[in-house]
Amino acid sequence: MKSVVSYPERGTGGKNSYRGNCSPKLIEDLVKQFKVTEMSDYMVGGGTTKDVAERMGIKYHVYDLSMGFNLVEDEIQERNEFIFNHPPYWNIIKYSGNMWGDGPTKGDLSQIEDYYVFIKEYNKCIMKQYYSLDKGGHLAILMGDIKRKGVLYSMLLDICKPGIVVQKVVKMQYNCMSDSKTYANYNFIPIVHEDLLILKKPFGYLMDFKWTKTEEVDIRDSKQISWKDLVATVLEKLGNKASLKEIYDEVDGHKKCQTNNNWEAKIRQTLQLNSIFKNVEKGVWALAA
């Protein structure tokens, strides 16, 4: 197994009609790479893990929300050598009420509309699976990126990562619904891969733990931003043209001003010395074209 894997031919196992099903060949390669003798899958979906395990003569435990097992809330019964986990890619495919069942079901992560709520709930699933690992056990998570309105939502970047990060593998994707679409925005970069993250549980009560925290900061309170960039941002906010008083009012009282007792004079100096600004009339400045 290498850091980039490609399976143009899907292989045998799992329901082909079950949207989002991964290639059996990936699971086969993981079994061979880590010499797996027993494995679990708590989001088995179309049954790929079960079929691969049976074919390779491996003991297995498979569950799914469609079978009545809610990974968010239910307790994992096994102690695990190896877990393969293939969660929904947010709400790209809604599973309950679509792929199975008569309607949305409690615990279906694909029904969550807010991405960050989805990540929070999925993190609970990651930790629960990680805790169930034996010493030296592995958790392999196959996940994808989502693009919405020009924003990339990357599960790989945003999920928590307990234990030791052993490897990240890029898995090429084939036969995606997006392959047949034409995008009007020439800046759009189609997503043609998935990410496989492999975590290992060392022995001990304490563990390394990586997680992403999103915070909001007002750049006017940053001491690292340059006066040039701050003034340019203020002008952009004010329609690319503003009076000195308007510029002063935008930054007055913010922490950047605390770095210079003569901050008003510093703003004037910044406007005069940088070619990205131009004086359009007395006391009025604009961004140069």
| CATH topology name of the largest domain | Rossmann fold
Number-wise, the strands total: 14
Total individual domains: 2
Q: Runs with pLDDT <50, length 5+?
A: none
Name of the top-level CATH class of the largest domain: Alpha Beta
Structure, described:
The protein is α/β, with parallel strands linked by helices. Helix content is 24%, strand content 24%. The protein is built from seven helices and 14 strands. The protein has helices spanning 24-33, 48-56, 115-131, 155-158, 227-237, 244-251, 263-273, and strands at 4-5, 38-41, 59-62, 80-85, 133-143, 145-148, 151-154, 161-162, 164-172, 193-200, 209-210, 241-243, 277-281, 284-287. It is elongated. The protein starts with a strand and ends with a strand.
Summarize the topology.
Layout: E1 4-5, H1 24-33, E2 38-41, H2 48-56, E3 59-62, E4 80-85, H3 115-131, E5 133-143, E6 145-148, E7 151-154, H4 155-158, E8 161-162, E9 164-172, E10 193-200, E11 209-210, H5 227-237, E12 241-243, H6 244-251, H7 263-273, E13 277-281, E14 284-287
Parallel strand pairs: 1-9, 2-3, 4-5
Antiparallel strand pairs: 5-10, 6-7, 8-11, 9-10, 12-14, 13-14
Helix pairs in contact: 1-2
